[in-house]
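User: Predict the full complex structure for these chains.
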Amino acid sequence: RKEVEQDPGPFNVPEGATVAFNCTYSNSASQSFFWYRQDCRKEPKLLMSVYSSGNEDGRFTAQLNRASQYISLLIRDSKLSDSATYLCVVNMAGNQFYFGTGTSLTVIP
Amino acid sequence: DAGVIQSPRHEVTEMGQEVTLRCKPISGHDYLFWYRQTMMRGLELLIYFNNNVPIDDSGMPEDRFSAKMPNASFSTLKIQPSEPRDSAVYFCASRSNTGHEQFFGPGTRLTVL
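Assistant: Here is the predicted structure of the two-chain assembly.
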């Protein structure tokens, strides 16, 4: 079983739409959680950390549900520039970071 | 800041050849990670260093893969001999002692024919 699982998509949404991605993780001892964004043929970059209480950064909201072992990312008012692959990342103790295979988002004009 | 630097950006080689990938982490970062990314398996951690010392190489696929970090500003990942199934994008990333964010280099796209 993979440590981190994501729906690969693709998600194709119109501009202005709200879209949500979920990610599940297998190890209940996981300590910290992140969403990374990866543009086509580019390197991953940190989008936001995910805190237990949930956190928001502009149009982006991240949530963590430890009981069900999933994290989510909500994007409101989608922009064309949001088109990318979104990677869910889970950190065990130390430096073991597990990346999901990513969810592809295309925002359509 | 130049960010994490990797070379070469693209490498095409024939099966059986030796391949060396290079990485310069961000100055002052204590951790360096080597990842491999494929469509099927996503990003996989191969090995990471802390203060130039290899800490966990459990992700290295087999003995054909080796990594070194002779000093704080340089690391190499070597594949010898290379095989077609090694074709992937190899990323190097670094992070500081005080933060969680990993900063990735632009990657090396390796194709083994």
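The interface with chain A takes residues 31, 33, 35, 41-45, 48, 50, 55-56, 91, 100-102, 104-107 of chain B (CB under 8 Å).
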